[in-house]
Specification:
Layout (H helix, E strand, L loop, with lengths): L2 H17 L7 E6 L6 H11 L4 E6 L15 H14 L8 E4 L3 E4 L3 H12 L5 E7 L2 E7 L5 E15 L9 E17 L5 E6 L7 E8 L6 E7 L3
Parallel strand pairs: 1-2
Antiparallel strand pairs: 1-3, 3-4, 5-6, 6-9, 7-8, 7-10, 10-11
Helix pairs in contact: 1-2, 1-4
């Protein structure tokens, strides 16, 4: 799908949703790699979704042996993707894979499916999450969790780019948004309960996005999400 068409479709869909009930924030994860020739279109789709959802770009490392080592890759995201594969009952991991709210997975280049899932998941009841910057940290307040869940905090680079010099994408300049650098559990909530804590952030959090979301288990449904832009 052409990027202009996707942007128009998303704008139309979000305007329609705004005319009805306010849509809850939706978390969209993209498992991608600069060593995968099928990934650039999915990276572009995620860039378009960035203005309509909370997005995370998680670069896996199993393409790193194929002529280009993705400088943004981590085995941690490979393991997270494997958890999703088990949860969804699919044969194995692949790129590009998009996971929307921990509830649906599909080829990350499928912009129509992404739009449909964004609207579908946005209609579900979610916890209210408020994030406030404090000196050296972020105050996290959660109210009305629909289910027992882990409180997860991610730090992500706002933007990253590479001039790829080898592998399947040799010669391309690849651009990414919300590139995940760390993800950790900072607490937990019970169904119907809340959470309030000021979480200390590392020194390298400056200039990065702070994303907090509630997830059932390690790869279950997302029960709420919130984001602070780069400081």
């Amino acid at each position: 799908m052409r990027r202009g068409f996707l942007a128009a479709a998303l704008a139309c869909a979000c305007a329609t949703a705004a005319g009805q009930a306010e849509r809850a924030p939706v978390l969209i994860e993209l498992f991608t790699s600069e060593g995968c020739s099928s990934c650039p279109p999915a990276d572009q789709v995620l860039q378009q979704l960035d203005t309509h959802a909370i997005v995370l770009s998680e670069h896996v490392d199993y393409w790193d042996h194929d002529g280009w080592k993705d400088p943004h890759s981590s085995h941690e995201w490979t393991l997270r993707q494997e958890d999703y594969a088990r949860r969804f009952g699919i044969p194995g991991s692949y790129t590009p894979q998009m996971v929307v709210d921990g509830a649906a997975e599909f080829n990350g280049s499928d912009a129509r499916r992404a739009q449909a899932e964004l609207q579908r998941q946005g209609q579900k009841p979610k916890a209210a999450i408020k994030l406030t910057r404090r000196d050296g940290g972020v105050e996290v307040t959660v109210e009305g969790a629909p289910a027992a869940a882990n409180v997860m905090l991610a730090l992500a680079d706002n933007f990253a780019a590479s001039d790829v010099r080898g592998g399947e994408n040799k010669g391309l300049r690849m651009e990414h948004v919300a590139v995940v650098r760390s993800l950790r559990k900072v607490g937990s909530v019970k169904r119907g309960s809340g959470f309030e804590e000021t979480v200390k952030l590392p020194a390298d959090a400056a200039g990065r996005r702070v994303i907090v979301f509630l997830q059932e288990g390690s790869s279950g449904p997302i029960e709420g999400a919130a984001e602070l832009g780069p400081s």
